[in-house]
Amino acid sequence: MNTYSTRFSTDEWALILGGSSGFGLATAHKLARHGLNLCIVHRDRRGAMRRIEPEFERIRERGVSLLTFNRDALDATVRSEILDAFSETLASEGKVRVVLHSIAFGNLKLIGPEAPAKEGARARLAEALGIEERVLEEAADRLFEEGCDALQGLATGPQYAADRFLEEEDMARTVHAMGTSLLGWTQEIFKRGLFAPDARVLGLTSEGNAVAWKGYAAVAAAKVALESVSRSIAVEMAPYGIRSNIVQAGVTDTNALRVIPGSAYLKAQARIRNPFRRLTTPQDVANVIYLLCLPEAAWINGEIIRVDGGERISGASR
Question: In this predicted model, what pLDDT tens digit does every residue of 22-39 receive, in sequence order?
Fold first, then answer.
């Protein structure tokens, strides 16, 4: 039995796209603790299900209904099939209170070859100390890996593919997956009359929407597209009771971050800059998403809300 107080009706649901890990899974747990039924769409290999199924079972143990679909959320035909099955479960009473877009599927390639590196601080420091640069490099790499973030400038830099660069098709797939696919789901849910009278459409962005990280061009473009789509939903669907907002998370140690070349350096920079000297967690983000779903947040619409402990506005460098 669910022992948590709730502000949600028992016939209300959250639809989470990308809910088997990271922000999506953390949000699923948070909303379930407060009595919201869940429909989770994810795309995972069979081997990953050994980790995921226990997470889903924990959600069910909280006394809420849970539907899961391990299918391709980016395929329009599959989307219709999922919503057909979802509609049968909702019947005449159930409504979608929350849609969360948490799909992390994109290309992480440079747009062109890197320029040759110039002599850096490590070589000069090794010379000044009278030691081989290799010795200094090995020590800096080891200590950086152990968590000494201040050594990021001396540690070996991230390695990028020297012969595979971002192509137009890569860009198009990424922008659709992590950006504009939110629109198709929102339109289809609306067309079927499944939204609750006070519904929330939410997506996730990052600081890469405004700054350039190497290898992040396609994902950055997708995030900007997602934000634009969200603003349009916020304006055009407000008369139907639908609010749309984007959460901008700080650097978070998720599976999606770890596949970014140089992610260790992004994490080190974030910890140095963040006023709290730590990374954002999926739980931090899930807590704010929950708050945005409450009736008291009904007047927040069309916004990008930072959840980063002040990381974005901090000028600290050490």
Answer: 999 999 999 999 999 999
Q: What CA–CA distances, in Å, run from 34 to 10, 12, 78?
A: 10, 12, 29
Q: Domain 12-109+170-307 belongs to what topology?
A: Rossmann fold (3.40.50)
Quote the CA–CA distance of 74 and 167 in Å, as a whole number. 20
pTM listed for this prediction = 0.91
Token pair for 232: 């349009």
Vertex 91: Cα angle to 85 and 95 (nearest 5): 90
Report which residue type is found at 312. Answer: R
The SS3 call for residue 53 is: helix
d(CA 128, CA 115): 26
In terms of Cβ atoms closer than 10 Å to its own Cβ (0-12, 13-18, 19+), residue 223 is buried
User: Which residue type occupies 43?
Assistant: R
- Cα 258 → chain centroid: 12
Query: 214 vs 298, which has greater pLDDT?
Result: 298
Segments making up each domain of the chain, as ranges: 12-109+170-307, 115-159
Q: State the residue for tokens 């028992």.
A: 10
User: What amino acid is encoded at 107 in this protein?
Assistant: N
Half-sphere exposure of 95 (CA within 13 A, CB side): 14
E strands, 103-185, in order: none
